[in-house]
Model the fold of this input.
Amino acid sequence: MAVPELRPAKRLLRPAVGWALLPLAAFGLWPLAAAANVLQEASQRFQPLWSAGGMVASQELEASRVGRDVLRQGGNAVDAAVASSFALAVTHPQAGNLGGGGFLVLWQPERLRRGRPLHPYEVRVGKGRAVTINFRESAPQAAGPDLLLDASGAVDRHKATRSLLSTGVPGTVAGLLLAHRNYGRLPLGRLVAPSIRLADEGVVVSKALADSLEAAAPLLRADPESLRLFFRPGGKPYRPGERLRQPQLAATLRQIAAEGDKGFYQGPVAQKLVALMRRRGGLISAEDLSSYRARLQPPLVGAWRGHPVIAMPPPSSGGVTLIQLLNILNGFDLAALGPNSAAALHPMAEAMNLAFRDRNRWLGDPRFVAMPLERLLSQAYADELRRTIRPGRHRPARELDPQSGARIAEHLNTTHLSVIDRDGTMVATTTTLNFPYGNGVSVPGAGFLLNNEMDDFTARPGAANAFGLVQGKANAIEPRKQPLSSMAPTLVLTPEGGPLLATGSPGGSRIITTVLQVLLNRLEHGLNLASAVAASRIHSQHWPDELAVEEGVSPDTLRLLEAMGHRWRLTPAMGAAHSLEALPGGGTLGAVDPRRAGAALAGE
Done:
């Protein structure tokens, strides 16, 4: 089936003099007339998958199939997202999400909500309603600003990432159940049943999972329970094709299916988690668990060339920073400059630095911190920032903010899934343990790993976290506070207000710039969805003062960026933007990101 081309809209603003670098004519090069396509070859190297109905895109095949089967049984996109998320807790323990948290963005066509009053947290966008769900982890009541510091006042990296002090109160179960109660269609038991079966009967270990477990062996073997859960007797690693059974996790899922929130936040599962905390110096109490609540929140709504962009509000920084970037960049004719040209990448990198400076200075949990969101999201402010970008010259980080920063090794195991159903409802949800396998500690008798999300707080203002982010006091640790996140589940509508794109990504601080580039590639440059996802990416975040570049960016382009003052480094593959696109006549296109092995689409 032919993929619809999104051609760039007429520009409202023209590029400043000096941006249109290196036209082909400067080298005496002119495009050749297209030859007749007698072989019926595609115009782009990558092609999305098509489904006549809905589709699920996730990091693991069985989890995608679970969501697909829910759609076939009459469930909607929310049902499928809930079912696939619980399945990922079984099949993708790297980010297995019962012990973590995340965010969800939902848009439903208005025709499906007729007769129902507008919820206080719902916003009418286009021809439907949008809402978000915040199920980010929260700091225990006993946590304080010095929690992760050593005796000298420096950040203790072991405390921050490997101890039980690094664990925030998990939110995933509460978030998925809140989504189901408010917007699901099928009974909860039917949505959790496939995950119980997978945990009981076992999942076939893929090569990707076997390699991941082997890489994480030093971490997991340090915890007796994780060693028992994720390795064969004698500590031997699982080989591809063997079956990993998780009966304790199955029992926890049964408790959730039978009792809902109480099955996780009270009763035997909660008691096991609290007992572990008491034995090994953690802070989470029974009261922390029983009082945790996921929250409905109104979305942020931005735009790109007439396309409404629906994004997550704080404590996710993803929506604010993404919309700010779009507002800055809409003054450049990026389509004319060309995808991944030096002329296009330079203003993108400079805009990233400006937006991340504001992210790290201002953003935090809105229940604790006053943030100038109206200004940060305004077009007028973005216009001010754009005027500070120098054509053809990088602005050093110290000129933006004289705070020093240092790059620290990045740990990037979050997971994202997207769902679009045959009625046009769209869901984008991102969940995480923070590091791969969190802090490596599993709850005895409950079968799930714990997060190390407390490291996403500002342990000490001016000190970089594990993603190299240098953050301010707005994100300092306080009891019950939620740490700032970079997760950016995002939905996009057509200019007419119908469903178009569902996307998001793992990748720490690089999530936001990954989503940005997927949107620009599809909406600005007219690449099809698969090409938009596969294209090489860059990332810059103010500190450290360097441009991260994936393989595939031309050496000529890099030399031009160097001449502009950019110091770049080649980075491992960034993100995994599993994305879906609703077709105007019905049906769905899907593209999983080739950067991470094992991801899969499943269409009705």
In short: Residues 1-27, 404-411 have pLDDT under 50 and may be disordered. The first helix runs from residue 61 to 72. DSSP finds 21 helices and 20 strands in the chain. The longest strand covers residues 101-109.
